[in-house]
Specification:
Its main location: cytoplasm. It comes from Paenibacillus barengoltzii J12. GO terms for molecular function: kinase activity. It contains 15 helices and 14 strands. It has helices at residues 60-71, 107-115, 124-137, 157-160, 166-172, 181-195, 248-257, 261-270, 273-278, 284-292, 296-319, 330-335, 337-345, 356-360, 385-400; strands at 2-8, 12-19, 24-32, 36-45, 51-57, 85-92, 103-104, 143-147, 203-209, 213-219, 222-226, 325-329, 367-368, 377-380. The strands form 2 sheets. It has an 8-stranded mixed sheet with strand order 5-4-3-2-1-6-8-7, sandwiched between helices. Strands 11-10-9-12-14-13 form a 6-stranded mixed sheet, sandwiched between helices. Helix 1 (60-71) crosses helix 3 and helix 10 (284-292) packs across helix 11 (296-319).
């Protein structure tokens, strides 16, 4: 079965086409600047040259039509016909409490995703646009939705509830939902396979650290705690997001600076984190360059980031009464040897021993970077959320037949 995986944003659309007989990627690409007359489609068929096309793409239906044209193009395509695509998988950020796993798209499922718009106003609306566009361009082809929040629906009430009046949970479902669930689930499974150990026996801390970042405590293969909350703002210090802070900071700043709700929300999500402390960049590569050069602002940003990351690892080791495996993944986790090194240096109380030479090796494959004497396995595992979505899509479509 060939499965097209789509990740729709408000003005962008990422895609990957899989042949699920061997899980190979046939092609992948990105449509940018949707809604403009100078939209950019970048298409990369496996084993062929990357091609770029600039044209007017005003909405997602046209974007997917353009993608399908590229996939079936005689020179740059990988399909003889659109009919070869037998299913479409979609990434959806928020599934609320309704979705504890991926689901076949129905009118009822779409209605529920719309109902959850308030919990993910920047992400769920584009996801619906992507689903509708796929249905228009590929009528009769089943669509499946995979939710970033679904993996975390195994958390217990004592973990996901906030200590605020419970009526707010009953009326508005204010609670911890988490995010990056597809990534956390994927790398925890790969970790168990890599170590050739049953996941049911493992206590794993997965560190998905990129521009957005979250940690998850995975015990026996299920999420028992995660750092992001009602929204992706809670938890770790990130590229432009503040992470944890005293809630009174919000009302205090609004009062002193005469900011509106939208302005303070923008401040915490887009103008905080590494960018705010360094004053120069939200990119960890720039931050580490500045730290190595002895620049004070970048050094402070790096030290705050590493400290908060390490503090959460310690908290989740306590939550699970131990840890067997720590996994680093996503942009920073996979590529920043210095972040991994400095974090692990201060985890010696857990029995962590990092092999500094192994840590410097760059590879696109899962690998161990701890020493043979380390009491905790330290792994670097490239995440692959698209493959996880493709697998769920295949399974759900086959089960629905």
């Amino acid at each position: 079965m060939k499965v097209l995986v789509i990740n729709a944003g408000s003005s962008s659309l990422k895609y990957q086409l899989y042949d699920m007989t061997d899980e190979t990627v046939l092609a992948k690409g990105l449509v940018e600047r949707i809604g403009m007359d100078s939209s950019i489609l970048t298409h990369k068929p496996t084993g062929k040259e990357e091609v770029t096309e600039v044209s007017e793409i005003l909405e997602h239906t046209t974007a997917i039509r353009k993608v399908l044209e590229k996939l079936t193009d005689k020179e740059h395509g990988v399909l003889s016909s659109v009919d070869e695509i037998q299913a479409v998988g979609h990434r959806v950020v928020h599934g609320g409490e309704t979705f504890k796993g991926s689901a076949l798209v129905t009118p009822e499922v779409k209605a529920e995703i719309r109902r959850l718009f308030d919990l993910a106003p920047l992400h769920n609306p584009p996801a619906i646009m992507g689903i509708n566009a796929a249905e228009v361009n590929m009528p009769g082809v089943p669509n499946v939705v995979a939710f970033d929040t679904a993996f975390h629906q195994t958390m217990e009430e004592k973990v996901y509830l906030y200590p605020i009046p419970k009526v707010l949970y009953k009326k508005h479902r204010i609670r911890r939902y988490g995010a990056h669930g597809t990534s956390h689930q994927y790398v925890s499974r790969v970790a168990a396979e890599f170590l050739n150990r049953p996941i049911e026996e493992l206590k794993i801390i997965t560190c998905h650290i990129g521009n957005g970042a979250s940690l998850t405590a995975v015990k026996g293969g299920v999420s028992v705690d995660t750092s992001m909350g009602l929204t992706p703002l809670e938890g770790l210090m990130m590229g432009t997001r503040s992470g944890d802070l005293d809630p009174t900071v919000v009302t205090f700043v609004m009062n002193k600076e005469e900011l509106s709700i939208s302005e303070v929300n923008s401040m915490l999500n887009k103008h905080s984190g590494l960018l705010a402390i360094s004053g120069s960049s939200s990119d960890m590569r720039d931050i580490t360059d500045g730290w190595e050069a002895g620049k004070p602002n970048e050094t402070l940003a790096f030290e705050m980031y590493e400290y908060r990351l390490r503090k959460y690892i310690g908290a989740y080791a306590a939550a699970m009464n131990g840890v067997d495996v720590i996994v680093f993944t996503a942009g920073v986790g996979e590529n920043s040897a210095i972040v991994r090194e400095k974090t692990c240096e201060n985890l010696s109380y857990l029995g962590v021993e990092l092999d500094k030479e192994l840590n410097k090796v760059r590879s696109g494959e899962p690998r161990r970077i701890s020493t043979p004497n380390s009491k905790v396995e330290i792994l670097v595992i490239p995440t692959n959320e698209e493959l996880m979505i493709a697998r769920d899509t295949l399974q759900i479509v086959q089960e629905s037949k």
